[in-house]
Amino acid sequence: MAMSRKSKSRIEVAFIYLFFLIMFIIIGYPLFWALMMSLNPGSNMLVTDMFPSNPTLEHYKWLFTSPNSNYLTWYKNSLYVAVVNSLGSVVITSLIAYAFSRYKFVGRKYGLYMFLLLQMFPALMGMVALYILLNTIGLTDSLYGLMLIYLGGQIPFNAWLVKGYFDTIPKELDEAAKMDGAGHLKIFWTIMLPLAKPILAVVALFNFMAPFMDFLLPRIVLTSPDNFTLALGLYNFINDQFSTNFTRFAAGSILIAVPIALVFLLLQRYLISGLTAGATKG
Amino acid sequence: MSIDEKQHRKSGIGRPRNIATVLSLFIPGLGQLYNRRFLKGIILLIITFSFLVTTWNYIDIGIWGIVTLGTIPREHHSIQLLIQGLISLIVLAFGLAIYIFNINDARKDAIARENGLPKPTLLRGMTDFYDKGFPYFMILPGLLMLLFVVVLPLLFMLSLAFTDYNQYNAPPRNLLSWVGFDNFRALASVDMWKNTFLSVFTWTVVWTVVATSLQIGLGLFLALLVNDKRIKFKRTIRTVLILPWAVPAFVSILIFSALFNPTFGAINRDILSQFELMIPWLSDPFWAKVALIMIQTWLGFPFVFALFTGVLQSVPQDMYEAADVDGGSRFQKFRHITLPHLLFATAPLLIMQYAGNFNNFNIIYLFNEGNPAVRGQNAGGTDILISWVYKLTFETNNYNMAAAITIIMGLVISIFAFFQFRKTASFKEEGRY
User: Fold this and answer.
1) Cα of B241 to nearest chain A Cα, Å
2) Are A209 and A236 in a shared domain?
3) Cβ proximity of B250 and A215 under 8 Å
4) What range defines the domain where residue A27 resides?
5) How far A256 CA lies from chain B's nearest CA (Å)?
6) pLDDT digits over B251-274, tens only?
């Protein structure tokens, strides 16, 4: 006897839920494990337990209270770089994107080609030269040097993204404003910027989070622990002696992963719509 | 002088447009003065003068430096000369742009005068300049940063590939010299380099294709499942599935690196030990590669999932209804409606996923620093091109070889960029959903 269509569909749905359950475990396990590690006492990984018999917050306490801990300094440094990077990138890229979206000028086409090509080249490729350049202008081991590289490096990708979004704003709007006697900057300020808020928020968010996530560039540019960003400082916890400081690393990581993940989950909808708008309508 | 000759003078070199052009060709600003555009002419003269005074010396040394790379060891620093040379070329390009603008401008004004158009007022001239120059003012700050932070370093890397700059031959003790394609030849003929390059390149390709395709496949599959009408709690499921994207990648990679650690990692100790299994995740190249691909799938599928979920909601429902009428199967509907729609809307972003993994330094380096070591080659068993370049640069100071490999990577990336551009351009013509 053939199975009725309804019960076949039920079994299918059950399998789908089962698959989601497996995915949840695969996603949750590493994160949960790291959380549990951060509650294990001591730093010997060989005696750690998934469910510690005497969970402790000593690692969290250490991060904030120990005189040997630079955690708060790192947090402050990262925040500083992140805020400047976020604001600066919005200003620079929206200006460029406006020019590329609304004006015809010599070099426009090749400029767009250049952005498209450059966004695929990781900054790492020019690292040696960047270091030497920063050295000649005296900005090694300085947060300003780091900001400079972030700000310059984000241009190709974000300019392309914002330009794509600007292109979707009807040209009739600025032509009407021009009739009313609005100048270039006034159109930019009163029409383009307000209408492009979603994509500008995406750019701001991207560039705010980048300094929290990147450890490589800071590692090459920054040398003294007072100047470290969070990612670099945390990396050094386990880079020095791997097995001895993982519990502390886990505690420090959770304190940055949680706020970032929350902001991210709240804003990811805009992120996706911004990305598809910019990439597909360019 | 005959009438013929006069006619000739009129249409030849003697016409005002040509006189203005030639004057500006010799001294920028002079043509403008000839056109009686005094303010513009004087400003151009001043710009020319100050440009020459401030940059002449720098460019002179820079050009000499980039050609010779210095002649006296210890006194001339080849690397600094090379950078000065590259900066000189950029400055020179800016100068050239102004110079060409000046010639065109002189010619245009002269033509306007020939045609008897009135000389514009000062105010008018300035608004014209503002209008025409506006886009340039907007891009200038960003362009300068881009040139010095992105383009200049890339040009520098490009140049290093044609020098003999390595650990044993480094300034200021030694002078560098241009060696043409020697480094590329070494890469193709010296056994050590050839073997390493081939194995690293092969693994990079396998890594890029397998890891990226897996993350796209899983993301697609999950997006289709969540989109199913019979599924409830969609919001919660989506939020959890996006979680790996929300956690900073360097944190998750380092967590995985500890999880896979053979002595204290939970994978061997808590899970596989139940089945009497011990897998050398970090010390065996094969298993390290398997682990890397699994981790990247974990890290990368949420982006694709979120992307596809967004696009799926825009597939026109009437197409499915039409397919139902025609008796199309579920697979046929997926194959002919859903998939083309998804790929059409997201192709550029998917291509960027491949390019991103091709350059995915973070995961390779943070997981195992490219290890384990492999006999007979100077890259680790899991090193991809970019992490190998990093090691050659910062660990063994083989700058010249690192740069040569970077150029090869650049060529591969350009292929990605080419396809992406074609995809993006096609959207422009075909419109959008």
Assistant:
1) 7
2) yes
3) yes
4) 5-61
5) 8
6) 999 999 989 988 778 888 878 877
Cβ atoms of B282 and B261 closer than 8 Å: yes
Residues present in chain A in total: 282
pLDDT digits (tens, 9 = 90+) for B166-190: 888 888 888 888 999 999 999 999 9
pLDDT digits (tens, 9 = 90+) for A127-144: 778 887 888 788 888 999
Residues of B in contact with A51 (CB under 8 A): none
CB burial of A158-179 (b: ≥16 within 10 Å; e: otherwise) equals: bbbbbbbbbbeeeeeebeebee
Q: How much is the pLDDT for A88?
A: 95
pLDDT range class, residue B1, cuts 50, 70, 90: very low
Task: Read off the pLDDT of each residue in A95-122 and give the average, rounded to a whole number.
Answer: 86
Residue A2: is its pLDDT beyond 80?
no
Judge if A137 and A265 occupy the same domain.
yes
The mean per-residue pLDDT over the stretch B8-17 comes to 67
Judge: B231–A100 Cβ closer than 8 Å, yes or no. no
Check: complex ipTM more than 0.95: no
Q: Which residues of B fall within a CB distance of 8 Å from A96?
A: 138-139, 142-143
Residues A256 and A199 in one domain: yes
How many CB atoms lie under 10 A from the CB of residue B133?
Answer: 13
Distance CA B202, CA B90 (A): 37
Residue A78 has a pLDDT of 92
Q: How many domains does chain A have?
A: 2
Backbone φ and ψ for B45, nearest 5 degrees, come out as -60, -45
What is the value of pTM for the model shown? 0.85
Amino acid at B276: E
| pLDDT at position B114 over 90 | no
- Do A134 and A266 have their domain in common? yes
Q: Which of B255, B268, B281 should one mutate to test binding to chain A, selecting the residue with the greatest count of A CBs within 10 A? A: B255
| pLDDT reported for residue A18 | 95
Tell me, letter by letter, the H, E, C secondary structure of B77-128: CHHHHHHHHHHHHHHHHHHHHHHHHHHHHHHHHHHHHHCCCCCCCHHHHHHH
Domain boundary among A40, A61, A82: A61
Whether residue A104 sits in one domain with residue A231: yes
| CATH code, domain carrying A274 | 1.10.3720.10
Question: Both tokens of residue B361?
Answer: 């330094």
Is A53 in the same domain as A75?
Answer: no
What does the DSSP 8-state code read for residue B337? I
Question: Are residues B417 and A151, on separate chains, in Cβ contact within 8 Å?
Answer: no
Residue range A37-84, pLDDT digits in tens: 889 887 777 777 778 888 888 889 988 888 888 889 999 999 999 999
Residue among A95, A117, A118 whose CB faces B138 most closely: A95
Same-domain status, A107 and A135 = yes
| Cβ <8 Å between B150 and A235 | no
Examine the domain organization and report whether A43 and A176 are in the same domain: no
Question: In order of start, what are the domains of chain B with their CATH numbers?
Answer: 3-160 (no CATH), 182-430 (1.10.3720.10)
Q: Which of these, A225, A237, A208, lies nearest to B255 by C-alpha position?
A: A237
